[in-house]
Amino acid sequence: MDSIVQILKQNNLSVTDGRRKILSLFLNSNGALAHADIEKNTHSHFDRVTVYRTLQSFVDKGIIHTIPTSDNSIKYALCKDECGEGHHHDHHVHLVCTRCGNTFCLDNVVTPTVKLPREYTIQQVEVVVKGICKSCNNP
């Protein structure tokens, strides 16, 4: 059984052509993907609603996670093994390259600890750093 089918079945998702193609994009990507990247690279006629629903089901199951962008849109990246349905453990920094525009998960860089007053509860910490990626630094 190929890894795409295995991931979908482990997460109790039916194996559809759309899910296979979209998950394949993530598995073969070095960085995060925007909705437009997915539409452009699937080379098929999935409607926007199908792509959004697929992405949301992948987020809900802990297969991918969201990354906020400076223009208030969202990019998506693969989760690591410790994520699961309803529980994301993506406590790492994201880097947006100011040269190529790609977004990368920096898995070995842990988000800083944020201490809030007792009457506040943290639900998620997102750290996005702008800089130059290793590919652009080593042309």
From TrEMBL:
Domain of life, source organism: Bacteria
Keyword field: DNA-binding, Repressor, Transcription, Transcription regulation, Zinc
Gene3D superfamilies: 3.30.1490.190, Winged helix-like DNA-binding domain superfamily/Winged helix DNA-binding domain
InterPro entries to which the protein is assigned, alphabetical: FUR (IPR002481), Fur_C (IPR043135), WH-like_DNA-bd_sf (IPR036388), WH_DNA-bd_sf (IPR036390)
Family: Belongs to the Fur family.
PANTHER family given in the database record: HYDROGEN PEROXIDE SENSITIVE REPRESSOR (PTHR33202:SF22), ZINC UPTAKE REGULATION PROTEIN (PTHR33202)
Protein name in the entry: Transcriptional repressor
Origin organism lineage: Bacteria, Pseudomonadati, Bacteroidota, Chitinophagia, Chitinophagales
